[in-house]
Structures are given as C-alpha cells and as structure tokens.
Design goal:
With 288 residues, the protein is an alpha/beta fold. The protein has a single domain, classed as Rossmann fold, CATH 3.40.50.10320. Helix content is 46%, strand content 16%. The radius of gyration is 19 Å and the shape is globular.
C-alpha cells in the first residue's frame, strides 16, 4: 500500500522533471517559423498589446496626449504570459517588436522601483526602450471593477499602428488567460480596431494588419508546464492560422520575471516554474 502511495505521489513529479529536462535541452529552430518574412522581404513591425505593466515599457500617453517617461509593470504580463513569443521574435532578426501597455498600474505606489525593474527586463528581452508605450489614462485604470472603453483602446492602437507602420498585432484571446476583465477588454478593443482597419483598408486598397491571440488553456494544462508542451508539440502542426512559440530556454523566461523583484513573490515563483506560458505560447490568428 505504501509503495502504491509513493508511485501516486512521485510519478507525476518524475514525469514533470523528465519533461522539463527534455524541453530545456531542445531549442526549436527559429528559421522554421512560418510567420517569419521570407528572405529579401522587409522586416515586420509587430505590436504586442497588453493590459497591465510588468512588461517592458517606456513612454506613457496621458489623456491630454502629453508624453512622460515611466517604465512600470508591463514586464509581468510579458514575462508571465508572452515571454516565449518575444524571445522568439527578437532572436530572429526579422521583426521590430513594440509593446503597448494600456495602463501604468501604479496602484501600489511603486512606480519608480518598477521603472528600474522594467528597464532591466526590457534589456533582457532585447526590446528597445523607445519601442515601449504605457498609457496613463483615467479611463484605463488597473482594476477588476473598472470597465475599459473598447473604442478608446481601438483609438490608441490605431495611433500606434499608424505612427509605426504596424504589420502584426499580438494580444490576449477572448478569455484573457486569467479571465481578468481588463485582459478581456484588450481583446475586445483589438477586435474593434481590426474591424475598423479592415473597412479602411478596403476603401483605400491598403494592406490589412494581421493579428494573433494567445490561447487561454484550462487549469490542468496551464500548470502542467513542460508536460503539456511535449503533448502540444507532438500533436500540433503549424499552419497559417496557428503557431507554437517556444522560449528555447525556459530559464530565460524565468530570468525575465526575476528582474521584477517587487513582483517576485513565492506564489509567482511557483506560477512561473509550473506555468505552460513560461515554456510555450500557442497563438491563433484572428479571423479575417
């Protein structure tokens, strides 16, 4: 009976450790990514749109449209959720990556500390500081009970996209990984922007912006980490409408999160170690 108990307890742990070793030792070839521009083509301008700081960011757009420098929380979203995508894109050399964070999340009053943390994280993820924008608008404040305006989000995305000739947008899906209403609002704002962009493109005969959303998974998949990565890799075939991004080295995702010392609490350490988003991102194209 005792041996059965030990098997039940330690078998999943051994499976997880084995999967972690396999995933850590394997680094998928970046050149096989289907959404990378072909040789001779111009670099693609990519915009990652997130809800809260703990990412990488540099400039804040206030509602009066004056510019300020602040680098707050953005990297937490990027480190916790989007690190595999960013590490892959920045390593390819054929993408210029920008980040748009729709709130500065200064609720705890640690803005100046997180500025330095964010600078360190941005540098680690190879995203230039001038490529990160954080919005500080009274209508887009961090909170579960704050309703964000989809039209305002769409306008902000349009402004960034126009200024920087954005070719591709990456963001949350309709559930927003954790179900946070701000995440969901980001998805809805991107949808509204894409709808408006499609109408404008048809009228002006311009090119449409393609958009990809990060797949939300259930609790078991989310916290099985490298085990789910191996399963997904085995059964997944990259297509024009879906793609898997790997971090290459899970330690890189973990190190990026470690740059945010004020956020590096014990439960976030567990999240980063066990979360599938540390190891892999599954992106799906927005329907055209």
């Amino acid at each position: 009976m005792k041996s059965i108990f030990l098997v039940i307890v330690f078998a999943p742990l051994l499976m997880w450790l084995l999967a972690f070793a396999i995933v850590s030792a394997s680094s998928p070839k970046a050149e096989h990514l289907p959404i990378c521009p072909g040789s001779g083509k111009k670099r693609k301008n990519v915009l990652l749109v997130v809800a809260h700081p703990d990412d990488e960011s540099m400039s804040i757009w206030q509602s009066d449209q004056s510019l300020h420098f602040n680098k707050k929380k953005v990297l937490t979203h990027i480190s916790r959720f989007f690190a595999p995508t960013l590490l892959s894109l920045t390593s390819l050399g054929c993408y210029d990556v920008r980040v748009l964070c729709l709130s500065n999340g200064n609720a705890e009053g640690l803005g100046s500390v997180r500025e330095m943390e964010m600078l360190s994280a941005c540098s680690f993820l190879k995203i230039p500081l001038e490529n990160v924008d954080i919005i500080n608008d009274p209508l887009l404040q961090d909170g579960h009970n704050v309703a964000w305006s989809r039209s305002l989000i769409s306008q902000l995305i349009n402004r960034i996209s126009t200024c920087h000739n954005i070719d591709m947008i990456i963001t949350f899906d309709s559930y927003g990984i954790s179900g946070h209403p701000n995440h969901v609002a980001v998805y809805q704002g991107v949808c509204e922007f894409l709808f408006d962009n499609e109408r404008t493109s048809v009228k002006q005969k311009g090119s449409q912006i393609e958009a990809w959303k990060l797949e939300s998974v259930n609790f078991i998949k989310k916290y099985s980490g490298p085990i789910y990565v191996l399963w997904s890799t085995w059964r997944h075939i990259n297509t024009s409408n879906s793609h898997l991004f790997y971090s290459g080295s899970p330690r890189s995702s973990i190190k990026a999160m470690q740059r945010h010392k004020t956020q590096w609490l014990w439960y976030r350490r567990l999240f980063v170690i066990f979360s599938v988003y540390t190891y892999m991102n599954s992106l799906h194209r927005f329907p055209v």
